[in-house]
Amino acid sequence: MGGRVIGLVLVSHSAALAAGLAELVAQMAPEVPVVPAGGDVEGGLGTSADRVADALAAADRGAGVVVLYDLGSARMAAELALEFVEPELGERTRLVDASFVEGAVAAGAAAAGGQSLGEVAAAARQSGAAEPAAGAEPGDAAQLGAGAGPIGAAGPGAGSVGAGSGGPPEQPAAGSDGLVPAADAVTARVVLTDPAGLHARPAAAVVRALAGLDATVTVAAGAVEASAASLSALLRLGASAGTEVRVAGSGPDAALAVPRVVAALSAAGAEDAVPVVAANRSGGVGAAPGRRSGPLRRPGAAGIEPPAEPFAGAAAERGRLAAALRQAGEQLVGGGDITEAHRVLLADPELTGAADELIGTGVPAATAWWRVVRRTAEELAASGDAVIAGRAVDVVDVGQRVLGALLGRPVRPEVPAGAVLLADDLAPSLVPELVEAGVVGFVLRAGGVRGHAAVLARAAGVPMVVAAGDALDAVPDGTPVLVDGGTGEVLVSPDEAASAPVAPARTVPRTARVRRADGGDLRLSANVGSVADARAAVAAGAAGVGLVRTELAFTGRSALPGEDEQVEWLSAVLAACPDGPVVVRTVDLGGDKPVPGLRLDQVRHGFLGERGLRLCLARPALFRTHLRAVLRAAVSRPIELMFPFVTEPAELAAARSALASAAESLRADATPFAEPAGVGIMVEIPTAALRPEPFLPDVDFVSVGSNDLVQYLTAADRTVPEVAGVYRSGERLVPGLVAGLVAAAGPAGVPVAVCGDLAGDPECAALLRTAGVAELSMAAPLLAGVRAALAD
Amino acid sequence: MADRLSATDLTAVFADFQRAVERDRDLLTELDTAVGDGDHGTNLDRGMRAAVEALAAIPQDTPGGVFNLVGRRLVSTVGGASGALYGTAFLRAARAAGAAEALDAATCTAVLRDATTGIAERGKCATGDKTMYDVWMAASTAAAAAAGDGLPALLAAASTAAGAAEQEMVPWQARRGRASYLGERSKDHRDPGAVSSRLLFGCFAAWADA
């Protein structure tokens, strides 16, 4: 980059618009090459790839070019230009989805400040994300099609743990000067598995995943980047199945946000792993046992129904519909599926004709429009093809938008008592509320058996089926269905007699400890990865902390943290932890956790590679800094120390010697520190679980990490929805393995804890209590469900 | 025996394709009116005219140059999806052909593969979506299988596979583009892009046969 300035190219359908904007930017950033590429070849309204290509060459000073564009087809022109410019120039070109004017001004300022290509692109992006398409906030159900409505706040995707929302940032947010912190502070890559690509539903899940988090996240496909907070921007990416998209986040919660976005993008594929079992029977995965029936309800579809209104005359009603179509059309730019659906609805004479015809027979515009939309959507959904059924969602989405414009009001999801709720995924916090409101069953298109929503549904005794995919999208709202949360089946139009009553949910006193059958104490603790988690643990009445994840000290920033930074971070977390024993796990990097500053390879440092303790032992300097920081932070309160991902006793010995030498060096520096009160290992590799004996003389405790243990037992990646069923089959082995561990460790005086997701599963918790564990440590929100399950 | 395709040969193939599109322009437009926005025939006709004129004005001495010029002209003169998709296909083909004086069976296989990939990336489509990509994919796969039998056999196999694919797709329901919103109405329609792609592969086979 060598201090050379980044150039800007402004692609607009209007030559005058591009030229005027270039003039505006040039006035503020005279030394930045700003080249307009407006209008088509003849200079009329339109775009031209040739013009963009010429502009790219003119704007490039060798450091790269940021391209901003006004409408989706302008992006297409820019993409085509990249097909024939010099490959090197193409590689240092970034197409940025941002507000055209604000983005250009922000990018100009950043370029003038000598910032890098990534920083200039990020400055453009964050100048104010492109407006959400529906004229509503992302997350408003008006954005989402039938049943695609997010219900409430962000639900952690399957596999993510801890709802770390709220709470002040644990670290000063970079970029307090208004400029963007280093781009790509936390990054991940994910290959889209949904056959329909990044369509409305997964895009909505991505937007939802960010709710309540203080992070700026982008999703990039090829050279194009979009704000993950903007549904329309994500749809404009038009990323298809098999595309590898890059997720990058910055800000205090980036380390939480990026995995959630990845989970949301990954969960989409789960919808297609589910066959329709029979014409009247759909399959999912059972997540909370029980059989209940009720009318199927989609909160999104229930959002707007045309009201009974007087007919104002054919001309007036047609005028209203035309105006609403126009209004909804103005809110939509770009080339996403929703836009495509909208163009079709707008232009397909058969649809507008049908609505017109209905209006001609005295039906008000809203009712006429909605009938036509529903009919179209049902026809698409009935095709039996997941991709085409996805089109139905788009059509309903657009239809809802137009309906909203017609009626001039937003959408409010509501679920009647006695209903079976069909949704994409569910915020865990909403499960109890919905149960209280009378929902008798849940069917989630995505979701996971390990998701907190499922755990809470189990605790409440309400059946839930997850990973049901598009199977029920063709079933009209209000159709009676029977949910069997044990088998994962959903029967459409079932015989009412098949339903079974359910025990009412119980309220449970908040205890932090429960008795084991053998008379011992079972501690109910929380897993903590941030100050916010620690506060949540206090609020939930945790007896202690069975797992402090130190990764956030690494992943929530743009570079590897120094010793002092780690001390500061860990001290703050420890200070916020509840009373009781606290177990700090040394940093567990690799696997699915990306780390800026460490060039980790997805395979070499992946789930079967050099991760966890292996990575630390391979990088002694990193490990030493980390251990010194942990020992120094332990001055503030006593801790126990745990090494993750231990396969062999030799690794434990090496880790212990690294710990001793870190302590020795602190002593030599006369730096205050405290030895851990105990040292243990995390049992998450089958070797250690099946043969714990060699480790026992050298540990004060062991803690079972069930998430990874099950993954390695079943050879099923826990982040891949397609193998969720296989993964789950392995979970049944865990209580038996833990019982074996307890049998081996008990005589040696070594207590056994469980700190994986299974600890927070009410059913499994009961089995683990029987197995004789000393501690169950889980995400704070799950404590209530486990308490309920263990209450005598 | 035409076992290598020179720039002159390729220019002749594109001239033949231009004539085929002109001849079937109304058919293509009619097919597109049924499932799309009804401009495929007119657009492709205009684009190929411009491409053939450019090839006459600026003769190319490598197949890669021919592909590049055709792709550039299509991108420049055709709005809508067909210009972007065909343009991308030929620009990727140009890159795969590189500076080779003529295309042999091996290079042709690579050219076809990269062009096909380009269509998938630009159109965000997959096989089974009932788009031109299905035809290109069939042709590309058949070409790769026949690469050992020499260029004429390769082009004949590609053309046969393209024709079969275009026919096979007719009863399908579209999964991409505007046709995908027509639901059942997209069944039993020929996809205009698939038909024009079939014409293109037919022109290559005709050259090999000559």
Question: What's a quick, concise take on this entry?
Answer:
Chain A is an alpha/beta fold and 792 residues long. The model of chain A is unreliable at 129-184, 268-281, 332-338 and 496-509 (pLDDT under 50).
CA-based gyration radius of chain A: 28 Å
CATH architecture level-2 label of chain B: Alpha Horseshoe
Distance between the termini of chain A: 66 Å
- Poorly predicted sequence stretches spanning 5 or more consecutive residues of chain A: 129-184, 268-281, 332-338, 496-509
Termini gap of chain B: 9 Å
Task: Provide the succession of SSEs of chain B.
Answer: EHHHHHEHHHH
Kindly report the spatial arrangement of strands forming the biggest sheet of chain B: 1-2
GO molecular function (chain B): glycerone kinase activity
Keywords (chain B): Kinase, Transferase
Protein name (chain B): Dihydroxyacetone kinase subunit L
GO cellular component, one term (chain B): cytosol
Describe how the helices and strands are arranged.
The complex is a heterodimer of chains A (792) and B (210).
Chain A: E1 7-12, H1 15-28, E2 34-38, H2 49-59, E3 65-69, H3 72-84, H4 87-91, E4 93-96, H5 100-112, H6 117-125, E5 186-191, H7 200-209, E6 216-221, E7 224-227, H8 231-237, E8 244-250, H9 254-267, E9 281-283, E10 285-288, E11 291-297, H10 314-330, H11 337-347, H12 349-360, H13 365-381, H14 386-407, E12 420-423, H15 430-436, E13 441-444, H16 452-460, E14 464-466, E15 480-484, E16 489-492, E17 513-515, E18 521-528, H17 531-539, E19 545-549, H18 552-555, H19 563-576, E20 582-585, H20 613-618, H21 620-633, E21 640-643, H22 649-669, E22 678-683, H23 686-690, E23 701-704, H24 706-714, H25 724-731, H26 734-745, E24 752-754, H27 762-771, E25 775-779, H28 783-790
Parallel strand pairs in A: 1-2, 1-3, 3-4, 4-7, 11-12, 12-13, 13-14, 18-19, 18-25, 19-20, 20-21, 21-22, 22-23, 23-24, 24-25
Antiparallel strand pairs in A: 5-8, 6-7, 6-8, 9-16, 10-14, 11-15, 15-16, 17-18
Chain B: E1 5-6, H1 7-23, H2 25-35, H3 40-57, H4 63-77, H5 80-97, E2 102-103, H6 105-123, H7 132-146, H8 151-169, H9 192-209
Antiparallel strand pairs in B: 1-2
Helix pairs in contact in B: 1-3, 1-4, 1-9, 2-3, 2-9, 3-4, 4-5, 5-6, 6-7, 7-8, 7-9, 8-9
